[in-house]
Every structure is written in structure tokens, then in C-alpha cells.
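[Q] Does anyone have a clean C-alpha cell version of this?
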Amino acid sequence: MIDLLYFHGLGSNKDSRKFKLIKNAFDCTHSCFCVEWGTDTDISELLTDLWTHYKDKNELVLIGDSTGGNYAYQLRETLKASGMKIKLVLLNPLLDFSSRIANFPFPEKLEKSLEKIKEIDHCFLLQSNRDEVIDHSCINRGFEVEQLIIDDTHRLLTFEKCVDSIKEYVTSDRL
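[A] Here you go.
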């Protein structure tokens, strides 16, 4: 069975509605794990531990929501060197802190853990057209980005309608 790692967003956890929907959809074909992190987590250490654990696998699926999208992208980039087949799904990803438009505070320690991702490639990108947290207009898409724009907010209240599209991408031959 292929492992699927879900990186939740800021303030969420393994009990998130999106992770439960993903886990339910992929339960028969993938071993689903939620990568839990919080405001005090050493993200660099977490990503190193994940790299150590998964570096010898043949295949992996990474799904990252919001801030978790940044971390999923970072992990994919470090694992790519091993020649692993990795499917990446980004849900309203925070790829660059400067694209954040929300006015609620963001933990400084976590801000420092974010990479400034200038261009994404080889992934499935789900974006809300009414995202009140992140301005997605500055995302540069490189090669092989399958994009789905939906009429929703940052929380993806209609996420259950998107799960089939995500599953189709993950189970396809596309990278």
C-alpha cells in the first residue's frame, strides 16, 4: 500500500474535516497519515525526520493544506533526489508568506520555517476564488500543474466535492 501524508493547515490537526474526507476516500488504496505540527514544532526537524523515514520508499503521496502546503512542497523537494515517485496535492497553499492577506497573527517561529516557493510544478493545485487568507494571483505555475479553481473560501467548505478530482489525479499516471 502506498503511504499518503496529509499536512494540515495552521490551527488544525488529525481531526480535520479535510483529512477525514481524504482518509475515507483513499482508505482502500493508501495508508493515510496526518503529519501533525503546531506553533512550537521545529519544522526543520519534523521534515528531516519524515525524510529519514520515507527516503527509501518507491512511491509517496503528499497533500498539503495552506501552511501545510508549504511544508509538503519542501518535503517533496528533498525526497525528489532519491528518485521516488511523488504525487503532490496543494490545497490553497501558502507558498510565499508575502501573499498572505489575512490580518490575524501568524506565529513568528512558523513564518521562519516557510520557504519562499517561487514556482510550482508537477502537482495538483486546488484554489478557492474567494480565499480571504491568501492571494493566489502571484502563484507561478511551471510544468505539469493540474489546477482546479472552485467557488469557495480558504476553509474549503465544499471540499467533499473536490475529493474525486484529487483521487483521480493521485491514481493517474501523471506526475
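[Q] Thanks! Anything notable?
[A] The chain has a mean pLDDT of 95.
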